[in-house]
Amino acid sequence: xxxxxxxxxxxxxxxxxxxxxxxxxxxxxxxxxxxxxxxxxxxxxxxxxxxxxxxxxxxxxxxxxxxxxxxxxxxxxxxxxxxxxxx
Length: 87
Hints:
single chain, mainly alpha, elongated
């Protein structure tokens, strides 16, 4: 589970520049960069980042799960949930 990389992935999916996340979250670009490279960012950084992305923390945690960890009979539901939670 790498929460920082997941934050970066979601930011890119939403096509948001790192400067925007920094501005909205009230922190520096370098702090956003640190959060996006940390395996487990500090809770405050994670909350600010998620608020700037306009997603719940649960969305980040969901996106850290590898599909090979999901039983085959639930994979379609898992994929749909991952898509829907970012909308």
